[in-house]
User: Which sequence fits this backbone?
């Protein structure tokens, strides 16, 4: 692979050092994502925006929000050529992550830091994300709007990048559930 097409510890450090001019300059374009084998049942909305840098490699910011639990969402700084997630923030994360010390992150906000040796297994609790850590019982995509934008901005700053003038927060819309027509897919 060409030098910037394969993620290394040195390239990840360079990206997160604040010296490569990283900037989020475009709004998110949201899409519903469906559950496997259920094309009529979106389970979350997802958006990706390019990150501009002075490097030759491509970077993207991806955000994923659960439709059943809008207070549970993730942000990922991606290196698309090899699929590496350099940084990941899980807000009120609902999966188990074990650090080397045995600490569990269940329904807690946490970050994943990538390295060649540990991949995404290095997990820690952040103190730089402005949000209420408790689940929000009556949350909707609309009611979470202000927090989503604030957390995107906090995550970009933590990655030592900037939010450019072309970025504006675009609220994700609740997708309409499509009716399931069982049996019609086999109709000749």
Assistant:
């Amino acid at each position: 692979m060409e030098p910037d097409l394969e993620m290394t510890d040195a390239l990840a450090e360079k990206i997160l050092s604040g010296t490569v001019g990283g900037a989020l300059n475009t709004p998110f374009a949201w899409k519903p994502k469906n559950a496997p084998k259920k094309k009529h049942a979106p389970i979350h909305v997802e958006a990706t925006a390019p990150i501009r840098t002075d490097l030759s490699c491509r970077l993207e910011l991806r955000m994923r929000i659960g439709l059943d639990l809008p207070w549970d969402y993730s942000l990922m700084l991606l290196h698309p050529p090899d699929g590496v997630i350099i940084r990941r923030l899980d807000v009120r994360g609902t999966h188990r992550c074990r650090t080397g010390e045995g600490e569990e992150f269940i329904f807690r906000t946490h970050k994943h830091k990538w390295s060649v040796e540990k991949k995404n297994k290095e997990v820690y609790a952040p103190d730089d994300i402005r949000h209420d850590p408790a689940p929000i019982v009556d949350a909707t995509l609309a009611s979470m709007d202000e927090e989503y934008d604030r957390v995107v901005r906090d995550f970009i700053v933590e990655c030592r990048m900037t939010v450019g003038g072309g970025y504006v927060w675009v609220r994700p819309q609740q997708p309409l559930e499509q009716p399931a027509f069982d049996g019609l897919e086999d109709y000749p």
The chain is about 10% helix and 35% strand. The chain has a mean pLDDT of 83. The beta strands are 23-24, 31-35, 38-52, 59-66, 73-79, 84-93, 108-115, 119-124, 162-163. The first helix runs from residue 9 to 15.
